[in-house]
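G.,

No rush on this.
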Amino acid sequence: MKNIQYQMIALCLLFLVAGQVQGQDAVDKKQAKKEAKAAKKNKVPEKGDIYLSPLPVIGANPALGFIYGAGLAASWYMGDPKTTKISSALAGLAFTTLNQTVFTIKSTAYTENNNIILMGDWRFLNSSQPTWGLGTGPQSAKLVSNGFEFNDGISEGIDGAQMMEYKFIRFYQTALKKVNEGFYAGIGIHFDRFYDVNDQLLDVANGDITSYYAYNEAYGFDNESTTLVGLSLNGIYDTRDNQNNPYKGRYAYASFKMNPAFIGSEKSSTTLWLEYRDYFSLTPDNHKNILAFWTWGNFSTSGDLPYLLLPAIGYDQFAKSGRPYAQGRFRGQNMVYAETEFRRHVWGTDKNPDLIGMIAYFNITTASASDNDIKLFGEINKGYGLGVRINISKKARTNLGVDYGWGDYGTQGVYIRLNETF
């Protein structure tokens, strides 16, 4: 009997010790997991590190209906972060209740030691967009009939937005080699194709002439599809410390694009893109107050471009210019855009001192239209607004931005995006 009692006591002690060991193991595992998480969070960036920031895409506007989908900001290092700038890409897939699809991938990557810059802009759109004619200024200055005369006694230009449905493919890829510190030179290939174009308000039989149709008739372009294929010569000067959210440095970009008919363009043409960005810290001991500047010009230097591929607002690589106007709201043979933005960090935590920020911006746009006798800088349209920034990746400096803006002619708009506008 005593042996049985001893065995029972020993068995209980064994279970007690095992329970304590298991409990200690659970505590140790929890602590190890916590320490690993902290180590990962505080790890110094190194080659191969990737930072991903997903974001649901939700919105609505009269042209697209209800919009839903997903976006992703990816940042990574292709070399030692001490000698290699961070690379960045934005990808998005969105659908709408009007059966539209928008897919984009836009990227700027730096190889090891910043030896090569790779720039990409890939898009597929099954979408729609209104157009308002050519040039900046009030709509009354841009009526089709002002620049394109149809001497049939009935034709008349449409005043106001003219909705168009289309499918669009874009493939741009540019590679630039470092020439010396900060300066790069290289070449690019460019392919744009609009097809299945439905000019919804066009009714030639009743004399309702849209800007798109009038331009195509005047310059000899097809109304249902258009293709532009080009090669470019490019130069970049870049001393920014981070392309997602620069605190200092400057950026300059020049691109001369040749679109010869013998490689697939509908008509031969050339264009010139000039761009400059600069960043100034108003509090030199930190980055809490930054004044940023951005300007670009897009010029038709020879030949004629298809209507939908003329210089237009929002047609920059990341489609971020022109707040609060819709993409393509202003279009012309030549265009100049300028914007300034004040950025201020307003609140943070010990873990993320740059968590919350605010911005205020102001921009101007001018576009020419030779057929309507609208000169560059003859008419200027402005936009201005405020925004909030939430830092969602401290190491990559990725911000979620929500902006609201006001413009001429009662225009207003809200924008949700990843990374800074420029």
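When you get to it, here's the other one too:
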Amino acid sequence: MPRNSRCAAILGCMALTATLAGCSSLTPSSAGGDGDLVLRVQGMPPATDKPGVALFKKQVADFEKANPGIKVKGSTTVFDPLTFSAKLSGGNVEDVIKVPLTEPQRLIQQKQVQPITGQLKEWEHFKEFNPQVLQPLTDSAGDVYGVPQNPYAQGLVYNRELFEKAGLDPDRPPTTWEEVRTAAKRISDSTGKAGFVHESKDNQGGWQLTMLSYAFGGELEKEQGGKYTATLTGEPTKKGLRLLKDMRWKDDSLGKTLLNNQNDVIKQFAAGQVGMFMGSPGTYRLAKMQFGMENTDAFGVAPMPQSGGDATLTGGDIYMVPKSADKKHAAAAVEWLTFAYAKPQYSTDMAAEQAKALSADPKSAVGVPTLPVFDKKRQTEIDAAIKPYVNVKLRNFKPYIDGLSTLKLKPEPPFQAQKLYTALDPVVQAVLTKRDADIDSLLASAEKDVNAKLAADQK
């Protein structure tokens, strides 16, 4: 997932924890004033996320009480693909790092993170993890290297109010990309708003093109003999770009602002200016809390439309232990990962406690669905535990929940996905801004460029 998307917080009906993001400087330290071990952890929320800050502080206090001799020092550092590798190689990172799902396989292959299987298996509920969410964090020998938080699957976010104004049924959102195109034109023609918006900068154009490619049945990367190569010139990817080109130049349904990142799109959506975009249910929280969406009843989300494919891109935040953490800090880090991220997504008591605390803030969003981190039985119990505190309109998420089970969950390209996205951003921008953009040559050039970089990374 692109770096700006790290702020796309999800507070889940299916898995509830605080989503923590921001940025801060790293101040190395190994012991507290009284000789305590100081554990530096990424994932502390920014000051603007008051419910999240309060929850994080309580987690820290509870953890320190349960683990005397360990002091937790939170960091609001966020993943930046431009600087992350250098910091990690130099050991200038915290003892717990937070990365998007694009990174674990690369970090595992390059031996920049530590396996945590042995200590994690000591937790009695380890075997109840959903295998789908652990698979991207596991090496070929079966060792696990991280703990997921709020895994999600991408879908189609839409404005129910604009649907009604355009004569569309908000309870029956598009299920194919041909239907998306038709609905986008109707919304644009009827309301003057952008019928559909595709992100196009800050690596997010490539990220969303990946979603489109999956929906048309494509792949953007293949593995053979332990080596990865980019496959950007496949017909499904071209079909996705042709769709965007037609919507832009034939239908004029993509709006007037064509160079957008995720925050730009959600801000416009929150203001009622966008009919549809690709996003997860968790974008509800950003629309409401960060961009002040007043008419939250207009928020709707459906499964990812399909036109030849049967998959949707999945992602989430992953917490890992870097190679630079010594034995004591690594052991403390796994204790923190289990306490702060695994247990709250498993324990009905902790889930209910956190939901109650968060629901006290009128700006919070409790009950937004995410993918289950544990088995179905446990998830049903979690849902029941937080039900009294849910403050979102679950009816508006029903199309997504009902339809998600019909799709395969497909992770982002496993090796150096950010480099693919960087190369694809200009391709998307060209299609959106140049009527005569040559899709075939643009993709061929991008594929050549990416494969040269991937080859250098795998020497």
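The longest strand covers residues 311-320. Residues 439-457 form the longest helix (19 residues).

Enjoy the weekend,
O.
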